[in-house]
Every structure is written in structure tokens, then in C-alpha cells.
Design brief:
One of its GO terms (cellular component) is membrane. Possible role in granule neuron development. This protein has 12 helices and 14 strands. The chain is of the alpha/beta class. An 8-stranded mixed β-sheet has the order 6-7-9-8-10-11-12-13, sandwiched between helices. A 4-stranded antiparallel β-sheet has the order 1-2-3-14, with helices on one face. Bound molecules: 2-acetamido-2-deoxy-beta-D-glucopyranose (5 copies).
Amino acid sequence: MIVRSPFVKLVITGVLIFGVVVIALNFISYSRNLNDFEFIDDNNAYVIPNRDGDALIRIKADVKSNSKPATLYLNNGKMDIPEVRIRTYMISINHVQDHNILIREVGEGNFNILLLHGQSFSSKTWENIGTLQYLASWGYRAFAIDLPGYGNSSLPVVQEIEGAQWLTRLIRTLRLSNFVIISPSMSGRFSIPYIMQSHTNQQLIRGFIPISPVGTNNFQTTDYEKVKIPTLIVHGERDKKFQSAIQSLKQIPSSQILTIKNASHACYIDQPLDFHNELRQFLYTVYRPIYIEQYKQRSLANATSSSSENLNTSQNKISSNLTSNRKHFQSKQSI
Ligand SMILES: *[C@@H]1O[C@H](CO)[C@@H](O)[C@H](O)[C@H]1NC(C)=O
Ligand SMILES: *[C@@H]1O[C@H](CO)[C@@H](O)[C@H](O)[C@H]1NC(C)=O
Ligand SMILES: *[C@@H]1O[C@H](CO)[C@@H](O)[C@H](O)[C@H]1NC(C)=O
Ligand SMILES: *[C@@H]1O[C@H](CO)[C@@H](O)[C@H](O)[C@H]1NC(C)=O
Ligand SMILES: *[C@@H]1O[C@H](CO)[C@@H](O)[C@H](O)[C@H]1NC(C)=O
């Protein structure tokens, strides 16, 4: 039968498309059921069985609580810094002059954190206070660099006017996209103009964490108002010299301020516990990784019964009992 009316043709085509979509959706939902996650307890862990009966145990960090993320673990009043392998290597940045730049890289995954440093510091600082190790254990990939002329990177120091350009080259060389910049103090002369430079830069960046940075006076209110990046402005309570920087950055519409109590200019070094807890909380609002805890060769039944045990001994163990940890910390501190 040949149908002439365009209206009837349209209806028949519609019915056919509808049918195909229904079949496709059924198929998708069927195959999803086969791989469905099996929740094993309240600790946000689940086991994904595979065909051989092995269990891929994953821990999802705080998936259920949208409020406070977990606190860090404390061991005898000290922060329990996870043991994470730090890959240290040099790269060459081709700028006005070639720079050999030292990189400390940790973690896996496709969400990156770039850590710059202040005048008296280097990438080693982020290792010393455990920031790199925490970032890796939370499921991020992080790159701490020695800026040119600092730490183990080669001279010359980059001129202020070339800061943004140099940082662009670094980011290209490291092939970073989907990343967050952590930029304390002196490194502001790289990161602030980079953020302001163009909308292209802003699209690559998913978060900005300036810590009492320099170089904020070179831009106007209208510049700050145009920035669309989620921004966590960090400063130490006792750091009075950088008030104007905070006032400028506050004009970024999607910004929030973190005042670290009883801390000076290098507030992340004075109060690493507070800094790391708040850092994680902010990062979770930008991107919350799912990370693989371990992969064990064993039957599913045994995996299920022992996985809560794994959680208890895991280095990445996450507690939702914020208050008890804080109390624990304070009581240990006062000893
Ligand atoms: C950095 O340089 C110092 C001395 O200049 C050296 O002892 C150290 O091993 C270097 N670090 C790295 C990671 O290359
Ligand atoms: C502030 O920090 C210093 C060490 O940086 C410490 O000795 C002092 O007890 C702290 N004060 C308060 C009120 O926490
Ligand atoms: C689980 O492990 C126990 C030993 O720990 C073993 O005897 C048992 O057969 C295992 N169960 C399965 C289903 O493999
Ligand atoms: C893990 O810890 C929870 C409480 O923190 C406890 O109820 C549970 O029994 C522990 N699991 C194992 C296997 O020890
Ligand atoms: C959290 O810790 C406090 C103090 O240690 C305790 O009283 C409370 O029962 C804990 N809450 C949970 C949910 O474990």
C-alpha cells in the first residue's frame, strides 16, 4: 500500500521512531541491571562483581552527604598523611628562554590540581605539609611545580608582565584541562593575570584557590566581576597586609572566603588541618572523584563480608563524624 498523504507518513514515521526508542531503552536498562552496583554498607562502598567472580571494591567518598565532607585522620595529634608515591621529574618550558621546571606529580585520573607556591617556598612545601598526598588519596591528580628561579627550577625568574603567558605555556606542556589552580602569595603574579587574560583560560579552569595572592591591584572591579570560575579565597586571620587583595577578589561573583583562624600569611602551613579539610570541601563542590580502593581476587561472597573490614583499615578511610574528630584533635592538641 502506498500512502500519499504527508500527514499519514508523518504519523507512521513517528510510531516507528517511538518503537525503536522503546526497544533501545529496554535494552539499555537490561544491560545496566547486569552491572548494577551492589551496595554493601553505609560507608559508601560498593562491590562491582565481574564475570570471574572477582570483586572490584570501590569507595565513593561521602556520596550521601552533601554537606560537610569527612575530616582528616589524626594519629597522636598529628595528621595522618597517607603514603603516596610522588613522581618527581623535570620538563622544559619553551618561553623567551628555556626553563627546566621541576614537577612533583601524584595521583591518577582526569581531574587535575595545579599547585604554585609563594616567595619563600617551593613545590616541596606541598609535599612537606601533605597536600600532594591528600589530593592523591582523595582521587585527584596533582602537579606541584617549582616556578622559574625557585626550588630546583632553572633561572631566570619570569617578569611580572610575562606571568600569564608563561603559565599558559606550562599548562599546555602539562596538557592540563579540567583543573583547579592553587596559588599562594607571590604566584598570584602568574595566576591572577592568567585568570583575567581571556575567556578561553576560564573555560579550562574549574576552580581557583588564591591564597593571599599578590598582583590583585592590577585589575579593576569590572575585571573581577567578569570572572566566572568558582573561587575559594583563602587568607590567614592574622595576615593584615593582604586585606586589599581579599577585597578585590571578593568581587568575583562565584567566590567564597575562607579565613583560617590563628594563622599568618602562609596560613596553609600554620594550620594544615583546617586548610586541608576546607580544601577538600571546596574541591568536592567542583568535582568529586570516585576512586578505586582495591582490586582483590576472591569470590564475591567473601568480598562482601570482608569489605567493611577493608574500609576500617583503609588509609583513605573517611569518617562522617566531624565533631568527634575535631574534639579528638583538640584534646590531643591540648596535651
Ligand atoms: C633539588 O636540588 C637539591 C640541591 O640543589 C638536591 O639536593 C635535590 O636532590 C634536588 N631535588 C630534586 C627533586 O631534584
Ligand atoms: C595559635 O597558634 C600557635 C602556634 O602557631 C599556638 O601556639 C597557639 O596556642 C594558638 N592559639 C590559639 C588560640 O589557638
Ligand atoms: C570464603 O573464604 C573461606 C575462607 O576464608 C572459604 O573457606 C570459603 O570457601 C570462601 N567462600 C567462597 C564462596 O569462596
Ligand atoms: C567497622 O567499623 C564499624 C564502626 O566504625 C563497626 O561497626 C564494624 O563492625 C567494623 N567492621 C569490621 C569488620 O571490623
Ligand atoms: C560522634 O562522636 C561523638 C563524640 O565522640 C559521639 O558521641 C557520637 O555518638 C558520634 N556519632 C556517630 C554517628 O558516630
